[in-house]
Amino acid sequence: MLGATGSIGQSTLDIVARHPDQYRLYALTANSNHRKMVQLCRQFEPRFAVMSDPDSARLLGESIADLATEILSGEGALAEVAAADEVDVVVAAIVGAVGLMPTLSAVRAGKRVLLANKEALVMAGGLFMDEVQRYGAELLPVDSEHNAIFQCLPPGSIGKGVAGEGVRKIILTGSGGPFRDIDVELLEDVTPQQACDHPNWDMGPKISVDSATMMNKGLELIEACWMFAIDHSDVEILLHRQSIVHSMVAYNDGSVIAQMGNPDMRTPIANALAWPERIESGVEPLNLLQVSHLDFTQADEGRYPCLALAREAWQQGGTSTTVLNAANEIAVEYFLNRQIKFTDIPRLITRVMEQATSAPANDLDAILEADSNARESARRLI
Ligand code: NAD
Ligand code: MG
């Protein structure tokens, strides 16, 4: 479980705890939240606990000296536990580009990889999908939209493309986030706290801000293009305020297949964990009478300029999506620290993208270099 202390980590461990006969935790990993990790180690007694931050690893060690759990630290340790022979499934739920290397490590070891860390695909999608093929890894989407699409497509659709399957288009839905109804002029002054107060989902701070700017939907567009081997022109984005329809696939014969459920990440996680079987996830059954309405509207790119930026980056190709992702990560970090305004996020990304030169993204060095240059350029611009 990469990213055990986060929001996806929590939801995953909740499911694991419901099925002690089916799942055992080999390793839990986190960055620095050692208090949470103490709790999780006591509950699950994994073989390994990895804290990226060495001081937190030491503190964890002091608190759980009575357990058999072995404590490791550093990025190498993340890659190591993700590739260990004893491991069948790796849940990739570290937030941001730092999740790429440990996730690739799981891919290269041919694991079943449950991908929540969408930034890994946005940053290095071509290389990532090639390696999934080459090493015979089994990629399964945890992001609710992609998991919905996966459930609506014929089996075997990941990485293979939907050509010949009678697919007309993929319809990606998004709630529009907490600022979907406020005057666009007021966006200038919204606070990180308001941005993290999502109407339908309870998520970590970075993806919450991404949902407020709708960069999240932009990242998901790119994620969908890589994962299902389709072009952006075959993906329509619709606002759907109830977050009940998690996405849809429209077929040539006029059929539109949707996956529905309450907005609770335990559904897509349980689906990916047990696939092709179905397991109890603890999610409230959907009550359609209570939901009563399902609304769909156009996403306004005036309100959500990040959507257009993501489409543009995908169309440019190469390292452009790496640059988009890196600039966004820095912008969100500074916004969360109250150092820039909410509306500076798309401004900053635009400037970083203008300054970057797009290179082919066919090797890891080129990708990592584009990522680091874009971060530096974003910091300089701020
Ligand atoms: P979060 O902030 O709640 O948790 C992030 C996890 O990553 C934590 O366990 C943290 O310790 C770990 N982490 C952070 N920096 C690290 C580092 N430098 N080294 C090692 N570990 C590090 O985030 P989240 O909301 O759980 O999201 C995780 C990923 O899942 C993101 O990529 C997000 O886009 C994706 N996702 C989340 C949701 C959701 O509902 N939360 C839904 C879809 C996709
Ligand atoms: Mg999503």
Structure description:
By secondary structure, the protein is of the alpha/beta class. The protein folds into two domains: about 5-140, 3-Layer(aba) Sandwich (Rossmann fold), CATH 3.40.50; about 150-375, RNA polymerase sigma factor, region 2, helix turn helix motif (Rna Polymerase Sigma Factor, Chain: A). About 45% of the residues lie in helices and about 15% in strands. It is built from 16 helices and eleven strands. It has helices at about 5-20, 35-45, 55-65, 75-85, 100-110, 120-135, 145-150, 190-195, 205-215, 215-225, 265-275, 290, 305-315, 320-335, 345-355, 365-380; strands at about 25-30, 50, 70-75, 90, 110-115, 140, 165-175, 235-240, 245-250, 255-260, 295-300. Strands 10-9-7-8-11 form a five-stranded mixed sheet, covered by helices on one side. The chain has a three-stranded parallel sheet with strand order 1-2-3, with helices on both faces. A three-stranded parallel sheet has the order 4-5-6, with helices on both faces. Strand 5, helix 6 (about 120-135) and strand 6 form a beta-alpha-beta unit. Helix 6 (about 120-135) packs parallel to helix 10 (about 215-225), helix 14 (about 320-335) packs antiparallel against helix 15 (about 345-355) and helix 15 crosses helix 16. It is globular, with a radius of gyration of 20 Å. The two termini are about 35 Å apart. Magnesium ion (MG) binds near residues 143, 144, 145 and 220.
